[in-house]
From TrEMBL:
Protein name: Putative phosphohistidine phosphatase, SixA
CDD domains given in the database record: HP_PGM_like
Positions bound to substrate: 60
InterPro entries in UniProt: His_Pase_superF_clade-1, His_PPase_superfam
Listed Gene3D superfamilies: Phosphoglycerate mutase-like
Length: 167
């Protein structure tokens, strides 16, 4: 039996004061930019770099992942998709199951309430709070991402900007 690691990364704090046309275009606040960079560097420091990343194409998610990748010096492949913008748990699991990638470490960059709902669904009802720029690692005893399903995951850890950096 193989093993896979799924990282669920919530976008950084968004800027509600900046002018934007739609919610989809809402940018990161300064605090969100800093947190995304810090999390990216921290994941590199602890050896938790994803092989492949699927990100919501909403501005705050794509900016979060790009900042984390650059700050952490990751060499990860990135796919952005609008399908994660307003996706539910079932749709997101289907996105994962249909990925044609040979990645042991997969990262999703998305939104609340999807982040906490997905952890709960995949990890037997685990109840987690997901502040902005938080990231959870879920471990699966599977060979292929097509095997991922409800209650098959184990929550390994949840990192928040506050738990890692004190802010």
């Amino acid at each position: 039996m193989g093993s896979k690691k799924l990282y669920i990364f919530r976008h950084g704090k968004s800027d509600w004061k900046t002018k934007y046309t739609t919610d989809y275009e809402r940018p990161l606040a300064d605090r969100g930019i800093e947190a995304a960079k810090n999390i990216g560097a921290h994941l590199s420091k602890i050896g938790q770099i994803p092989d492949y990343i699927v990100s919501s194409s909403a501005k705050r998610c794509s900016d979060t992942v790009n900042l984390a990748v650059v700050s952490g010096g990751w060499d990860s492949s990135i796919k952005t998709t609008r399908s994660l913008y307003l996706a539910g748990v079932e749709e997101t699991i289907e996105v994962i199951q249909t990925l044609q990638v040979d990645a042991k470490r997969l990262m999703l960059v998305t939104h609340e309430p999807l982040c906490s709902s997905l952890v709960s669904e995949l990890c037997m009802g685990a109840n987690v709070k997901f502040p902005t720029a938080s990231i959870a690692r879920l471990d699966f005893k599977i060979k292929d991402w097509s095997e991922i399903d409800s209650d098959k995951g184990q929550l390994a850890w949840l990192l928040t900007p506050k738990s890692v950096f004190g802010k």
